Amino acid sequence: MPTSTRLLSGVAPIIGQYELCLCDIWGVVHNGVAPYAEACAALAKMRAGGVTVVLVSNAPRPRSEIAIQLGRLGVPGDAFDAIVTSGDVARDLIAHRAGEPLYHLGPDRDLPLLAGLDAPRVPAAEGRYVVCTGLFDDETETAETYAEQLADFARRDLTLICANPDLVVDRGGRMVPCAGSIALAYEQIGGRAIYAGKPHAPIYELAIRQGQELRGENVERSRILAIGDAIRTDIAGAVHCGLGSLMCLGGIHAEETGELSPAELQDWFARQSHRPDYAMQQLAW
What distance lies between CA 246 and its chain's CA centroid? Predict the structure, then answer.
């Protein structure tokens, strides 16, 4: 881990060191309502300069669904080469339990996660395991809303597959809870959770493999840059996988870091579980 984080105003001074970029989506490319124009332009310039850009998301849906969402939000297609999601990894985990009845904890918008799989959905009382994609209503509920249900799952020793390890996400300036908050609450009462996305290795291995296939060559870990806005997922995952890391401070940690001086920022990084190599307010060229 670096002893200090290099503060940047743009990515241009350091991007020449890298051949592959694994970039978070929500909080870096868009805020759930609109794209960040400078971030999209920076990614497009990276690609024009020969860097392969794979968007890596903890979204609990297949990549095809996220591509549609990005188009609707107005994220330009020249900002990325490929997409890998937590949903893609979760589908593999579900496929390995083919035929077992599951309880889906999450909104119907996430049902594409199960499409085409031998994954019969049943009521909570009949599930042999749980697939959590989020809260049924993330505008009004919290993990505490599910305390009684989670206690029942723990008594029955059910495994919970968490298809989105994020605790919260910034939706147009408002923090809303994600599936990771439920999985964490489940673990805290002794339940067993399996995480499909960042910061865990499987999603990085899939993204790196995808990037290498697109390039037609292997890429050294030292030549891969991971960009994200969350210490717990994006930066921790990058560090664990031996990748370079760039943190966008204007995402979910904005309230903690927004008023800090450069020296105070270094102190803040020192208190975190993992320190990024680089940091900037928002991704820009």
Answer: 14
Which tokens hold the place of 119? 């994954």
pLDDT tens-digit readout, 71-127: 999 999 999 999 999 999 999 999 999 999 999 999 999 999 999 999 999 999 999
129-132 and 159-162 beta bridge pairing: parallel
Torsion of CA 270, 274, 106, 251, to 10 degrees: 60
The residues with which 2 forms a beta bridge, in sequence order, are: none
Residue 121: what are its φ and ψ, rounded to 5°? -85, 135
Note if the pTM is more than 0.70: yes
> Distances from the Cα of 123 to the Cαs of 39, 145, 178, in angstroms?
42, 18, 21
Q: For residue 277, how many other CB atoms are within 10 A of its CB?
A: 20
Cβ-Cβ contacts under 8 Å for 78 (sequence gap 6 or more): 44, 47
- Going along the chain from its start, the domains and CATH numbers come out as 6-86+199-280 (3.40.50.1000), 88-195 (3.40.50.1000)
Question: If we measure between CA atoms, which residue out of 244, 215, 214 comes closest to residue 23?
Answer: 244
Phi/psi-derived region of residue 67, left when phi > 0, alpha when psi is between -120 and 50, beta in every other case? alpha
Residue with tokens 């959590």: 132
Is residue 206 over pLDDT 80?
A: yes
26: number of Cβ within 10 Å: 23
